[in-house]
Amino acid sequence: MSRNGEPLPGTKPLPRLAVVGLGLIGGSFARGLREGGHCGEVVGFDLDPRSRELAVELGVVDRCASSLAEACQGADVIQLAVPILAMERLLAELARLDLGQSVLTDVGSAKGNVVRCAREQFGRMPPRFVPGHPIAGSEQSGVTAAQSTLFRRHKVILTPLEDTDPAALALVDGLWRALGADVEHMDVRHHDEVLAATSHLPHLLAFGLVDSLAKRNENLEIFRYAAGGFRDFTRIAGSDPVMWHDIFLANREAVLHTLDDFRADLDALRAAVDEGDGHTLLGVFTRAKAAREHFSKILARRAYVDVMHSKDLIFLANPGGSLSGQIRVPGDKSISHRSIMLGSLAEGTTEVEGFLEGEDALATIQAFRDMGVVIEGPNQGRVTVHGVGLHGLKAPPGPIYLGNSGTSMRLLSGLLAAQPFDTTLTGDASLSKRPMNRVAKPLREMGAVIETAPEGRPPMIIRGGQKLSGMHYDMPMASAQVKSCLLLAGLYAAEKTSVTEPAPTRDHTERMLQGFGYPVQVEGNTATVESGHTLRSAQIEVPADISSSAFFMVAASIAPGSDITLEHVGVNPTRTGVIDILKLMGANIELINQREVGGEPVADIRVRAAQLKGIDIPEELVPLAIDEFPVLFVAASCAEGRTTLRGAEELRVKESDRIQVMADGLQALGVNATPTPDGIIIEGGSSFGGGEVWAHGDHRIAMSFSVAALRASAPIRIHDCANVATSFPNFLALAERAGMRVGVEDNS
């Protein structure tokens, strides 16, 4: 059965479903499966005669039984949807019945209690009992509130045990998915701990606060002058007292554990207020605000995101258009990452302007917040970092999640290798496929203890308390991330740490270390640091990202009549390979108003349309344009003649295999593009057709094919574009403003 409620081909409806308890949840479960044609017959049972009558009248069930035994007779699945403290009595009655091969499941919010009761009544946990918990509700209750769509795009958590029958689990899982739910499987104990924190504790606090305030003599004044925030927080104190009484008693162990943790945090907060400790208060408030904003993004999608919808975000790029005007792309991602890392390890307060508010850079902020650093913002690109010094980080409360940010993971591994505490670095599905041995191997040579998943992939477990030794490392590949990782580890290592790269890569780390007052020796392709120095707070102005600018450089070059100026772009000589390559192809690019800001060279870049020609891309330029090649492949497709790229093996281990993915997409659009082990050969000059291409979750692929539409003969549909937000959150708005015809396809 499908996620959206449609039966899968070849799936037979369940012959008979019995639902015991015809309230909102049980009624909605019955109604949804009945109306969707997923059950031959839906039989209901409830102790309340009026609920049974209404269930039939409203079409919630086909019929109602007059007894539990009658309802369960011949049922393939029996859904138990009764109040949690009524479950023990119900299970006792069921244990006396001959249930045959019926599958049992339930909807209770405390799974440990259900499992315990089932074991007591049946003598063991029945293998065909699948505990479940739909996280959905409504302001109304009872069978009259039952709605077939209640669970659509909501989480349903199943908590199978080791001996749960796999066929029974698959059946229950399929029924919930047929209702449009996003089903997850979870350990019983873990479920109860999570729900105790996210649902049960907030209700306990709301009930307790309202009761406490209501008992005071001045309660009338308190409630009279309460603002909207008080109303919003205490709204859940209007929930059913009996139901919540049952839940707290049923899940008391997990609730008590969570409550004890909260009391400890509350005591620390009280102490901060008592002592006038503004730093601690600011830390709590900034972390809470960031967490709340993150939760709000999730809750905006009805709290429990539909994975399928979020995955296949489609860009529709229409043909034609030209670029004009002046635009400023978001701040440089590489510099944004490093400003937070070094600002956190500095003494004093660092102010950052122009910070990139994309998901990758925000992941770095959250990582340092998790390690005790107070960070204000970002607010319109402004961030204030209250540094804790090189030795001031604290153990995070759990694994550090870095989303899609390979930069965060690789650079952090160097910083964390010498900390006194253990850390675990994790990421999303894309990041979890990317190689980390390139940093783990040399860090181990320095004395770090690092564990990875097979083939050196995340998660990375970094053991604390290790003494690092400095070393000289000849890098086997040109990688700014590896170089930066080792230099940052060198801040903690005994003796000197030096890194020699085979070809120049971006030097933002070296420049920024010097900007924070930390000495770095650079001789040719070798950079050297040693421990014993201090990072001092700084003022950082992040220039516009040249990698983001590259999409508009190529777009203006290939779209006839274009004339656009990109403002305040970072033109660090280790990053300008894209400009050099485009100029070799005949692009009309002019750098104006060149200046230096915060140790980084900056310029405005004017780009006018030009007829490009194919070239053999010089290998010495490859490391200087490694992130820009996807859009350069688009430029090559529009150029006259052949373009050949060699020495770019690194492209195969980015967010995607960028050589293969771009070749596949270009071929689908009618371009003669032949991938090679370390590059690609593109025969340019032909016009693009339209069609379907796949970004494979890679933001640069998605944006590159958006640019290609400028020379296409028909629309290009680009699948899997959600990760564009990771590096260029306002790409579509800027593209439209500049003159491109690309937007999100409405597939609602």
Report on the architecture of this protein.
This protein is of the alpha/beta class. Helices cover 38% and strands 20% of the residues. The strands form eight sheets. Strands 3-2-1-4-5-6 form a six-stranded parallel beta sheet. Strands 30-31-10-32 form a four-stranded mixed beta sheet. Helix 4 packs parallel to helix 5 (111-122), helix 7 crosses helix 11 and helix 17 runs parallel beside helix 18. It is globular, with a radius of gyration of 30 Å. Mean pLDDT is 90; it is low at 1-10 and 298-310.
List the helices and strands and how they pair.
Layout: E1 14-20, H1 24-35, E2 39-45, H2 49-57, E3 63-64, H3 68-72, E4 77-80, H4 87-95, E5 103-106, H5 111-122, E6 129-130, E7 132-134, E8 155-158, H6 166-178, E9 182-185, H7 188-214, H8 219-224, H9 228-234, H10 241-250, H11 252-275, H12 278-299, H13 307-311, E10 315-317, E11 324-327, H14 333-345, E12 349-353, H15 359-370, E13 374-379, E14 382-386, E15 400-401, H16 406-416, E16 423-426, H17 437-445, E17 449-453, E18 457-463, E19 472-474, H18 480-490, E20 496-500, H19 508-515, E21 521-523, E22 526-530, E23 539-541, H20 546-558, E24 563-570, H21 577-584, E25 588-597, E26 600-608, H22 629-638, E27 642-645, H23 658-668, E28 672-676, E29 679-683, E30 691-694, H24 699-708, E31 716-719, H25 731-738, E32 742-744
Parallel strand pairs: 1-2, 1-4, 2-3, 4-5, 5-6, 8-9, 11-24, 12-23, 15-16, 19-20, 30-31
Antiparallel strand pairs: 7-8, 10-31, 10-32, 12-14, 13-14, 16-18, 17-18, 20-22, 21-22, 24-26, 25-26, 27-29, 28-29
Helix pairs in contact: 4-5, 7-11, 14-15, 14-19, 16-18, 17-18, 20-22, 20-24, 22-23, 22-24
